[in-house]
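Final paragraph of the annual report: two paired records, presented back to back.
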Amino acid sequence: MINLFEFDNHVIDTSTFDHLLHGEIVREFEQEVCEYVGAKYAASFFSASYAMYVIMKSEVCRTPWIKRVIDMPSMIPAVVPNVVVDAGYDISFNDNIDWVGGSYTLTDGLVDSAQKLNRNQYADECDPDDLLVFSMYPTKPLSSLDGGVVVSNNKEKIDDLKSLSFYGMEYAEESWSRVQKQVGYKAYMSTMQATIASRNLKTLDSKYERIDEIRNKYNSEFGLENTSRHLYRINTLDNEVAIKYFNKNGIVTGIHYKPQHENPVFSEFNDDNEQFFFHQQVTLPSRSTLSIPLHDKLTNEEVNYIIKTVKECNV
């Protein structure tokens, strides 16, 4: 079976850790991410979604720019509207489907880049005060046992997030020396998460070289112009039927994503309880779009087989 995603295996000796929960590797990894994406400061979390939650609850990070109603793509993982509603905001949906596999602006100054992490990305795409959020979820380009990193050139915002992620304290190696600055959360990235993510970051460029090679071949064969290094989407007549077809042929595929404006759980949180009908722009594409395997572990033979199977698909 050709899997939709593949993961690097790691053998880790935890006896070498200086601290099981928040070792020095966490700070080292934050700096490594900064250097890779071209940002000055970083704050790490146990997940990217919780990082966004903390950002939206932080007075330093959200004032004065954050809106009371957050407008987001309807074709999005359910975790994002969950985070926004949990943080106390209303939501509305838009018909942006092109962001999938990349990044998008959730609100002014806050960019969700959970599916994209490129060299010099912050320097190339962001303003100095922007917060750019990356995910280390196992299936993401830079993977770990989950995790998230927020980068910015605004030191005040990052210092606030570092404190909030660590019980509202200023970090110090000796627990009795930590100063309580505010009420915070237990949301920091663990030593294990940082260790795996740091190892994977060191091989990310070579991984991207292979992914780019496969994606470019897909584009050439299918006449598409996909740019994502995370998801490669094709169009089918019915993606739920197509999933069964590909599975029968030994290829694991996925749907990214079902539209959230059709999710009854979130309808009551929409601004003024408005109903959103994006039938042509969102609903129909969500029923046809299908992600096929795109990862560096694919062999040339598997890539050719996937291309052949896609071309033969008529469902």
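The closing record of the year follows.
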Amino acid sequence: QRQQQADEETRAKWEEAAASARRDWALAGPADPNHPYMVRKRIKPHHLRQLGSELLVPIYWRGELVSLQRIKFDGSKLFLSGGRISGCYCLFGRIEPGIEVFIVEGIATAATLHEQTGKPVAAALSAGNLLPAGSELKRLHPNLVLVLGGDDDRAKEAEGKPNSGKLAAIHAASMLDQKYVLPAWPEDAPL
């Protein structure tokens, strides 16, 4: 009974966040290509929107806008409080039969990869969401070929800490029986 009540409370928070996301999305205009985040990351606005000085990143689950990620001028990122994240993603491009889909952690990586390859790329928005978002994409598109792209936090690894982006991509690819790719670094690249 407690679990059922907790689930109901979570669903209510998700719906409240989704309503807020839809409202802000409707009020926002196209993202400014000269927004400092866009310039710093060297990406195009694509389908992102802007409300005031904040970029709005749409977060979808089963085709519905369920939340937003807000990116401020300084690049700091915030999710809507109580919004659904697990299994959600932000897609750049369109999923078409026979074309592999990349799934990566962040928006800038997704936009860059889409711009460079022309292929569809889903931003899972965190390393921990690579597997849930990949599972959801495979549920919606059973024949989809996914390539999981891991952030390679080499500096952490050099400090003896876990390289969470790399480990999450490898784990998700294994669980989904899909491929993964990591950045190729030259031997003399700085950490």
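The first strand starts at residue 29 and ends at 30. This concludes the annual technical report; the extension proposal builds directly on these records.
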